[in-house]
């Protein structure tokens, strides 16, 4: 879910022309979750092929990525989560319980014939499985779109790419990318609406804090790795850190309420596990492979798939002429 830094952030809505020909690292798990939640039947079920394989995430991935790449010549680099840090396992258990609760409530609403409520609840029940992630990677391979397998958090790896200058910005709905040090964060990146651009430099300069202090603010609020202090939101946390400098400088009545592993949490943001072994070059479109996988194996409409294939053919053709 990430840390809600929204009250501290000034957003800039930018024109889609700003992203043209830019390289953008996309938090793959984050965006696939969005597709899994939003692309559903009227009863709230994810779309599936006849063998029961979920295809909602593939449909979203296919059409959004090819539209951005074709219409705006944006070079998307997808980054997948690896193994979560040990400190995140508690948050993952809480998420699993929320999904299980949502699944029960969804089924109850269906039994009552309340389909509107069922669909609203169903969006909270989705879970990305290993086979679903492998399907997404297979589709990217067939389209020639590069991706990076992070050893840990995808947002940390994406931020590393941005800091190195391998990409211009990172794309995620969460604000944690800023804690990991991305210079530019894009939110709501689609082919049809103006995205939000948030720059780390402006966030830090507006509040006259360092990135290390921003991480301490997040720790006081609570992150995916720690629970934080009850009743401390972003504005209160900002005041505390600006007044006392760091978590270590807090009065005992505040600092003692944090778990003892806050230094480890800080390290997860400032020195996360990343890989330096990756390739960001676009490959080639395997047209027949795309049709075989999506139309024959996953039973998507050929007409719809053809639209996406033609986009990529045009993109590669234009690239070859430049």
Task: State the end-to-end CA separation.
Answer: 41 Å
**Counting H and I runs of at least 4 residues, what is the number of helices?**
14
What is the CATH-assigned architecture of the largest domain?
Answer: 3-Layer(aba) Sandwich
| Tally of separate domains | 2
Widest beta sheet: strand line-up: 1-7-6-5-2-3-4
- Strand tally: 7
Q: How large is the share of residues in beta strands?
A: 5-15%
Helix content: 40-55%
Tell the overall outline: globular
Would you give an account of this structure?
- The radius of gyration is 21 Å and the shape is globular.
- β5, α7 (176-179) and β6 form a beta-alpha-beta unit.
- The mean pLDDT is 92.
- The protein has 322 residues and is α/β, with parallel strands linked by helices.
- The relative contact order is 0.17.
- 50% of the residues lie in helices and 8% in strands.
- The chain has 2 domains: 1-205, 5'-nuclease (Rossmann fold), CATH 3.40.50.1010; 208-273, 5' to 3' exonuclease, C-terminal subdomain (DNA polymerase, domain 1, Orthogonal Bundle).
- The protein has a 7-stranded mixed sheet, sandwiched between helices.
- The chain has 14 helices and 7 strands.
């Amino acid at each position: 879910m990430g840390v809600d830094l929204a009250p501290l952030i000034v957003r800039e809505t930018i024109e889609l022309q700003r992203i043209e020909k830019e390289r953008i690292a996309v938090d793959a798990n984050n965006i696939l979750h969005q597709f899994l939640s939003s692309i559903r039947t009227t009863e709230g079920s994810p779309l599936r092929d006849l063998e029961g394989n979920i295809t909602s995430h593939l449909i979203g991935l296919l059409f959004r990525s090819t539209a951005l790449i074709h219409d705006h010549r944006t070079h998307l680099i997808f980054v997948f989560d690896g193994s979560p840090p040990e400190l995140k396992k508690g948050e993952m258990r809480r998420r699993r319980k929320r999904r299980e609760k949502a699944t029960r409530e969804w089924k109850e609403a269906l039994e009552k014939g309340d389909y509107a409520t069922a669909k609203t609840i169903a969006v909270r029940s989705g879970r990305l499985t290993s086979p679903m992630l492998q399907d997404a990677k297979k589709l990217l391979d067939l389209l020639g779109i590069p991706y990076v397998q992070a050893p840990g958090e995808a947002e940390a790896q994406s931020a590393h790419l941005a800091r190195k200058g391998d990409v211009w910005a990172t794309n995620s709905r969460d604000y944690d990318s800023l804690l990991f040090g991305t210079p530019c964060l894009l939110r709501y990146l689609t082919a049809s609406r103006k995205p939000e651009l948030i720059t780390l430099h402006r966030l830090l300069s507006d509040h006259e804090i360092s990135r290390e202090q921003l991480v301490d603010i997040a720790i006081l609020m609570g992150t995916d790795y720690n629970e934080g202090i009850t009743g401390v939101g972003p504005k209160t946390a900002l005041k505390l850190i600006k007044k006392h400098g760091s978590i270590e400088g807090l009065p005992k009545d505040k600092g003692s309420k944090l778990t003892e592993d806050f230094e480890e949490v800080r390290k997860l943001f400032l020195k996360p596990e990343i890989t330096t072994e990756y390739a960001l070059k676009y490959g080639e479109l395997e047209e027949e492979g795309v049709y075989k996988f999506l139309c024959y194996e996953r039973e998507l409409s050929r007409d719809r798939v053809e639209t996406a294939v033609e986009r990529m053919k045009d993109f590669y053709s234009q690239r070859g002429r430049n």
